[in-house]
Design brief:
Layout (H helix, E strand, L loop, with lengths): L16 E2 L16 E4 L7 H9 L4 E4 L3 H6 L8 E4 L6 H10 L6 H18 L1 H11 L6 E4 L6 H12 L4 H9 L1 H4 L12 H7 L4 H15 L2 H7 L5 H11 L5
Parallel strand pairs: 2-5, 3-4, 3-5
Antiparallel strand pairs: 1-2
Length: 249
């Protein structure tokens, strides 16, 4: 048994957690204290930064769009920063609807979120391919994040865990953990109805399922998608397992 905690209680980030401990290929567990996912890191306190230093965090991968990362930039001591920008689309689509006088409803928001996840698969493969390339360089502890650590980050975490052989239901469980951990900023929302905010600022199983249905429909399955679009072939997957799975005994 390990006494590692999955969620790290930081003051300036609410969705920072470890992907370790899940059973992967051959029953080998994902190594603890190597792979972290989070919401944005611009609000970290000095104590938070010290806590990340104790984790020996060495790499940060920022999936936020360019304006998002510019508005809330950060630098962590001894951590190499890499921008892999995926531009947000849901807020932009909502604003376009508002300008056109169209009402945003929860079902429309749900469809927008599903479309967003399908777009991760088709439009943002290069960013996820770059993330895997960095993962394959070495096993120094890293964090990948976006603004809320739920959509771009959630899909990235799901890809990594599934590439390591973690079962689909476990991957979904990790994905949905955001609903328990993420603290929504008090300033968001404007005039949007609460039911709409609850769609946009939370995660639902059918969001992630929309992405993997697109992977199956358009690429013939995850193995093909990893190899053809993310440049993660069998040899790369074997190295990924060597780096991030705990050997037996």
């Amino acid at each position: 048994m390990t006494d590692f905690s999955r969620s790290l209680p930081l003051v300036g980030a609410s969705n920072f957690r470890d992907l370790g401990g899940y059973a992967g290929h051959g029953g080998q567990s994902v190594r603890w204290r190597r792979l972290f996912r989070s919401d944005h890191l611009a609000g970290l306190t000095q104590e938070d930064t010290q806590a990340l230093g104790e984790l020996r965090l060495a790499r940060a991968f920022d999936l936020r769009g360019r304006l998002e990362s510019a508005a809330q930039s950060y630098a962590l001591p001894d951590v190499r920063y890499h921008a892999l920008p995926i531009e947000p689309t849901v807020v932009q689509r909502a604003q376009e609807m508002a300008r056109a006088g169209q009402e945003m409803t929860a079902p429309i928001a749900r469809r927008l979120m599903q479309d967003t996840y399908r777009a991760f698969v088709s439009d943002n493969a290069e960013q996820f391919a770059a993330l895997f390339a960095h993962l394959l360089e070495d096993d120094t502890p890293l964090v990948f994040h976006c603004t809320a650590g739920k959509d771009r980050t959630g899909f990235a975490a799901a890809l990594i865990l599934r590439a390591l052989g973690v079962a689909d239901d476990v991957v979904l469980h990790d994905y949905l953990m955001t609903n328990d951990l993420y603290r929504r900023p008090a300033a968001v929302g404007g005039s949007a109805p609460q039911e709409v905010l609850d769609v946009i600022w939370r995660v639902q199983a059918d969001f992630l399922e929309a992405a993997f249905e697109a992977v199956q429909r358009d690429h013939g399955g995850l193995d093909n998608y990893l190899q053809e679009r993310l440049r993660v072939n069998d040899a790369a997957r074997a190295r990924l397992a060597q780096l991030y799975l705990q050997p037996h005994g």
